[in-house]
Amino acid sequence: MQFIKSREELRTLYKSPGDGAVRKELPRLDGHCRSFIAKSPFVLIGSSDGNGNADVTPKGDRPGFVAILDDNTIAIPDRPGNNRLDTLENIVVNPAVGLLFLIPGMNETLRINGHARITADVTLRERLAVDGKLPISVTIVSVKAAYMHCAKAFMRSELWKPESWLDRATLPTLGEILRDQLALAQSAEATDQWLDEGYQKTMW
Q1: What's the rounded Cα separation, in Å, for the pair 43 and 190?
Q2: Burial bucket for residue 55 (CB in 10 Å: 0-12, 13-18, 19+)
Q3: Does 193 lie in the same domain as 117?
């Protein structure tokens, strides 16, 4: 198998992007971007460490959980998780990030590229609290580029069509997966119960 080794070689396979695809990239958030973020309950954050090892992590909360500080700055609260800190540790050494905002049922997405920093500023954490529970930290993203992404990926995958979804009962539970991957002594049912209890206690 041969692999493409240059940008020029890659470009021979594709047409040049259309004028609209180029011009739609904005250097800041406009009203449509702000509205999308305010309605979005879910964002994916792409990052990489100083050695080029990449990571993508999901962040989700009630719609509008990502705060817009100004036209070039957004704040993403970090709620309790597994404490691996893959994305946060990446940002400390390499601030470049790519974000993908989703709104359930909408095939178009909002992409944002920029630089991120981590803060534990109490005033900002209090602003982003849920039911009196403060986020552990906040990721501040300086927006360098923002643009809408077309619907084709979601149309092809039929992601939002319930009739295309697999029956969840045909898939293994996380407890079953962890039992097999980690060779756990306890049953899958006990692991699933432990996970459910943890979710209830540490959601925020």
Answers
A1: 31
A2: middle
A3: no
